[in-house]
Amino acid sequence: MPPSASPGFASTQWSMVLAARDGSSEAAQGAMQTLCATYWRPLYSFVRRSGRSVEDAQDLTQSFFSRLLDKEYLRHVDPALGKFRAFLLAALRNFLTNEWRREQAVKRGGQAQFVSIEEMTRAEDYYAAGASATGTPEEIYERNWAVALLERATRRLEEEFAAAGKSHIFAQLKPYLEGDRDGVRYAQVAAALEWSEVTVRVSVHRMRGRFRDLLQQEVASTLTDPSDQSAIDQELRYLLTVL
Q: What phi and psi, each to the nearest 5 degrees, are found at residue 200?
């Protein structure tokens, strides 16, 4: 049985942005930096698909997030204008058009670094693996955005299992998040966990249900009204179509 829920993102992405804009608390800044790390790869993929080199794309993405944390930049942010996904992309486009020109040869962002060098490398590897796929920069961005939400939900699920001391169970059941396996595979998992196959099937069903809940939470947190189930379902359906 999956462990009980963890709080995860207690606030919406929009509320975090507004907190960073209107306050100076370390919690608000920390929340914004978490968002930056979560959505670094989708934005990086947009910049790369727009024709920038690896180094330029890394510098531009880092500089954009540094600029995003500037309260002056966030002064006119209004959640009523739309989804957080659309806001970030519009802000990045504005940055690329207007801000980067002013930097000339000087890199903006100072020592600010929102993801590790290893994560930058993984982002480029991920982009390169799918670079031959058809799609505009916007389509690549949205595909990577959807992947980021899926990965976030998966990490939260893994953390819940770990908190309950069940990491070994998650390791065995995780492949079933991607779809059904054959009966032999169920038998192998049952043997590894010393469970019956029925118990494995029930646990997989419950794990998938919890994953759906977490994914809906992640999607909801990017919307203006996270309580609007119709909007959540619509956004989730859209994101699944771009994968």
A: -60, -50
- 8 A C-beta contact, residue 12 and residue 172: no
Residues 6+ apart with CB under 8 A from 23: none
Predicted TM-score (pTM) of the model is 0.78
Domain identity same for 83 and 190: no
Token pair of 242 as six digits: 């771009």
C-alpha to C-alpha distance for 65 and 73, rounded to whole angstroms: 11
42 with 146: CB under 8 angstroms?
A: no
Residue 64 forms part of a structural domain: yes
The packing angle between helices 54-68 and 26-49, to 10°, is 150
Radius of gyration in angstroms for the set of CA atoms belonging to the chain, rounded to a whole number: 20
DSSP codes joined into one string, 136-182: -HHHHHHHHHHHHHHHHHHHHHHHHHHHTT-HHHHHHHGGGGG----
- Tens of pLDDT, residues 61-70: 988 888 877 7
**For 225, what's the count of Cα atoms within 13 Å in the CB-facing half-sphere?**
8
Write down which residue in 132, 161, 179 finishes a domain.
132
